[in-house]
Write a structure and sequence with these properties.
By secondary structure, the protein is an alpha/beta fold. It has 7 helices and 7 strands; from the N terminus they run E-H-E-H-E-H-E-H-E-H-H-E-H-E. Helix 1 crosses helix 7, helix 3 packs parallel to helix 4 and helix 4 runs parallel beside helix 6. The longest helix has 29 residues.
Length: 241
């Protein structure tokens, strides 16, 4: 697949995992990439890898958990990059804990990063997307949005909220030529499983690779503007782990 016109994408959580793989996949397809994550060093490495394919790639270190700054920082990135046609809301965190055992502060932390931060990123890109009468927003949710895995209470709720946000946004923004897709992957072998907030022992070799998810994101990004994919699930061949 290839592009007939140049596209510009903003990818959050771009320093590793699905975000990094998506940045490389987009660059191979000729899509310029604005890369957002906390680590300047890691982002610089991803940007260097992307530029090897002849595209423009810029690193923008932003702490998306610092909610008061997110909308303005994303708006500034859009202006600096010369516009954004595709937003990939990928940044997020995993969290294991039952409803009864999850402290309020942890609950809020998960919802802040997995739901409120994407909401603010969307607000940051919408005005210029509306002006250009074109835009694609891909929100990386999870099969947990509907599977309701026990022991993943805050995570389940955050991803279900992201899917609901996507559906509402699609209805509101379709008159402006803006399309919205929720991508709901099953288990993917990323650094999420190595974080302190996730206590789970699933076989990593049975999980999907970040590259397989990136290929799916690219497929959505290259879809004709006359069509849309509201929601798409992708699972490991072994099923839910």
């Amino acid at each position: 697949m290839s592009l007939t016109t140049k596209k510009r994408a903003l990818i959050t959580g771009a320093s590793s995992g699905i975000g990094r793989a998506t940045a490389v996949a987009f660059a191979k397809a000729g899509i310029d990439v604005a890369l957002v994550s906390r680590s300047q060093e890691k982002l610089a490495a991803v940007a260097a890898a992307a530029t090897n394919f002849g595209v423009t790639a810029k690193a923008y270190p932003v702490d998306l958990a610092d909610l008061p700054q997110v909308k303005d920082r994303i708006s500034a990135i859009v202006a600096d990059f010369g516009g954004i046609d595709i937003l990939v809301n990928n940044a997020g965190m995993g969290y294991t804990g039952t409803v009864t055992d999850t402290p309020l502060s942890h609950w809020q932390q998960v919802l802040d990063l997995n739901l409120t931060s994407p909401f603010l990123c969307i607000q940051g890109v919408l005005p210029p997307m509306r002006s250009q009468k074109f835009g694609l927003i891909i929100n990386i949710a999870s099969v947990a949005a509907e599977a309701n895995f026990p022991g993943w209470a805050a995570y389940n709720v955050s991803k279900a909220g992201l899917v609901s946000l996507s559906k509402t946004l699609a209805a509101e923004e379709s008159p402006y030529g803006i399309r919205v897709t929720s991508l709901c992957p099953g288990a993917v072998s990323t650094p999420l499983w190595d974080t302190e907030t996730v206590q789970a022992d699933f076989p990593r070799e049975a999980m999907m690779s970040p590259e397989s998810i990136a290929d799916t994101i690219l497929h959505v990004a290259l879809l004709s503007g006359s069509a849309t994919i509201p929601e798409l699930s992708i699972l490991p061949t072994a099923g839910n782990l």
